[in-house]
């Protein structure tokens, strides 16, 4: 007999309650016994569907509590509600009967400070930034020859990445490195995978880029990507690393340590490879430009060929034209030579006539006669010129002798000079005891002044003084 056999009656079977009854009684008990209360905790998994309601989880170090903030009350909450915020909420405990979910119906929300996880994140971020762990900025190859993707093999991230790569660049070579992306094992597994890939890179140089990715989640779900050791492993990776963790608003330390960051897994795939449709369009544009350039070149060369063909003449025609030109040049040369010869003959005849009219012998005799006459005239003129110059010299000498100071000294006069050789003209220019020099007609004598006498009755000229 089976315990769950419906055909077996049970004489002592109690009255069974439906699931709805159980949930309803539990809701009524919670709402009656607890009433309105304040609860403090850290926000996590904040969700805002299109209905306008806000759903989130309040948690502390040991437990968590689901919460619902309906639209009628949510519009009175001024501050934004973000994962990691520490808040105080006022509400009443209840149960959502269709699912049996135990929850807190929130009526008001007050900020209570920054959550512990968020504060720890900011402290670790500041310390790693100061150490330079966020200084990576190596460019990633586009497209990579062999992309290594570190993510969960069952998550939506790998499906999004492969879908975008297939649509944009089917030639992409991708290797999935399965690692956990949530929980305590996630960070050590990713660190070990990074180390192994960097060691194997020397064996396969085609592996040239790493993508670390996962889908969105709460701050706790993404906390493995805020691991300090993982950030350092990304920083020290020889292979360039792109990080695409969570949604657009999610930021982790892995994003800062990586060489490049994408807001979502799909965006990472779009950044890593070009769009083949864009390349097809660009190739079509370039092909059109090549066709137009080629056709233009062919048209220009065809026109040039036509022009050269029009200028091309038969060799006989060219030779005949050149023979005609040569004959013309020969005729011009012969006429020029005949004219030049006639001119030179006339010039030579004229020179012969001039030479006959003036023979060099006759000119030489005439020049000799002129030279002899000039010699005779020179010999006759030289004595007269010498006599005349002697007379003039004697007259000048007499005139010079008449005005010479030496001639005056010869008549008994003397010139007195002081010690400096200056001529003394007045008695007042001397002093008793002074030695002066007297220059005579013949020789000099030194005199000593005894006294001065100023006399106005001395003769002005004629006889010398006594």
TrEMBL record:
Reaction it catalyzes: Exonucleolytic cleavage in either 5'- to 3'- or 3'- to 5'-direction to yield nucleoside 5'-phosphates
Enzyme class, spelled out: hydrolase
Domain spans labelled OB-fold nucleic acid binding: 17-109
GO molecular function, one term: exodeoxyribonuclease VII activity
GO cellular component: cytoplasm; exodeoxyribonuclease VII complex
InterPro entries: Exonuc_VII_L, Exonuc_VII_lsu_C, OB-fold_nuc-bd_dom
Chain spans, region Disordered: 1-22
Pfam families linked to this entry: Exonuc_VII_L (PF02601), tRNA_anti_2 (PF13742)
Keywords: Cytoplasm, Exonuclease, Hydrolase, Nuclease
Cytoplasm is among the record's keywords: yes
CDD domains in the cross-refs: ExoVII_LU_OBF
Enzyme Commission code(s) on record: 3.1.11.6
Main location: cytoplasm
Residues in Exonuclease VII large subunit C-terminal domain copies: 136-447
Subcellular location: Cytoplasm
HAMAP family tied to this protein: Exonuc_7_L (MF_00378)
Family: Belongs to the XseA family.
Record-linked NCBIfam families: xseA
Function of the molecule: Bidirectionally degrades single-stranded DNA into large acid-insoluble oligonucleotides, which are then degraded further into small acid-soluble oligonucleotides.
PANTHER family per the UniProt record, alphabetical: EXODEOXYRIBONUCLEASE 7 LARGE SUBUNIT
Protein name per Swiss-Prot or TrEMBL: Exodeoxyribonuclease 7 large subunit
Originating organism: Halomonas campaniensis
Lineage, opening ranks: Bacteria, Pseudomonadati, Pseudomonadota, Gammaproteobacteria, Oceanospirillales
Name of the gene this protein is made from: xseA
């Amino acid at each position: 007999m089976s315990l769950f056999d419906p055909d077996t009656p049970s004489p002592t079977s109690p009255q069974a309650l439906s699931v709805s009854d159980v949930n309803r009684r539990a809701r009524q008990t919670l709402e009656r016994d607890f009433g309105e209360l304040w609860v403090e905790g850290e926000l996590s998994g904040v969700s805002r569907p299109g209905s306008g309601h806000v759903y989130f989880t309040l948690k502390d170090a040991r437990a968590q509590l689901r919460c619902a903030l309906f639209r009628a009350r949510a519009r009175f909450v001024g501050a934004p509600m973000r994962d990691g915020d520490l808040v105080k909420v006022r509400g009443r405990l209840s149960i959502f009967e269709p699912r049996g979910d135990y929850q807190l119906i929130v009526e008001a929300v007050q900020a209570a400070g920054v959550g512990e996880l968020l504060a720890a994140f900011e402290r670790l971020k500041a310390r790693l930034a100061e150490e330079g762990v966020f200084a990576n900025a190596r460019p990633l190859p586009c497209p990579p020859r062999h992309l290594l993707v570190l993510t969960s093999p069952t998550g939506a991230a790998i499906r999004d990445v492969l879908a975008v790569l297939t649509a944009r660049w089917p030639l992409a070579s991708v290797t999935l490195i399965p690692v956990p992306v949530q929980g305590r094992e996630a960070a050590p597994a990713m660190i070990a995978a990074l180390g192994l890939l960097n060691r194997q890179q020397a064996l396969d140089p085609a592996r040239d880029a790493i993508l670390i990715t996962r889908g969105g989640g709460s701050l706790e779900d993404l906390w493995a990507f805020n691991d300090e050791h993982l950030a350092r492993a990304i920083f020290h990776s020889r292979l360039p690393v792109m990080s695409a963790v969570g949604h657009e608003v999610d930021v982790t330390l892995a994003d800062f340590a990586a060489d490049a960051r994408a807001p979502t897994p799909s965006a990472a795939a779009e950044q890593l490879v070009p769009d083949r449709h864009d390349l097809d369009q660009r190739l079509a544009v370039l092909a059109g430009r090549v066709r137009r350039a080629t056709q233009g070149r062919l048209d220009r060369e065809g026109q040039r060929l036509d022009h050269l063909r029009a200028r091309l003449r038969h060799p006989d025609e060219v030779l005949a034209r050149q023979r005609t030109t040569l004959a013309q040049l020969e005729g011009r040369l012969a006429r020029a030579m005949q004219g030049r010869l006639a001119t030179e003959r006339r010039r030579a005849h004229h020179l012969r006539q001039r030479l006959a009219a003036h023979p060099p012998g006759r000119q030489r005799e005439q020049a000799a006669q002129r030279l002899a006459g000039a010699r005779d005239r020179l010999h006759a003129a030289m004595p007269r010129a010498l006599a005349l110059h002697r007379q003039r010299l004697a007259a000048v000498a007499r005139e010079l002798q008449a005005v010479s100071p030496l001639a005056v000294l010869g008549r008994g006069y003397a010139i007195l000079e002081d010690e400096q050789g200056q001529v003394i003209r007045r008695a007042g220019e001397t002093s008793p005891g002074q030695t002066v020099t007297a220059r005579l007609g013949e020789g000099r004598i030194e005199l000593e002044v005894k006294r001065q006498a100023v006399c106005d009755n001395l003769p002005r000229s004629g006889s010398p003084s006594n």
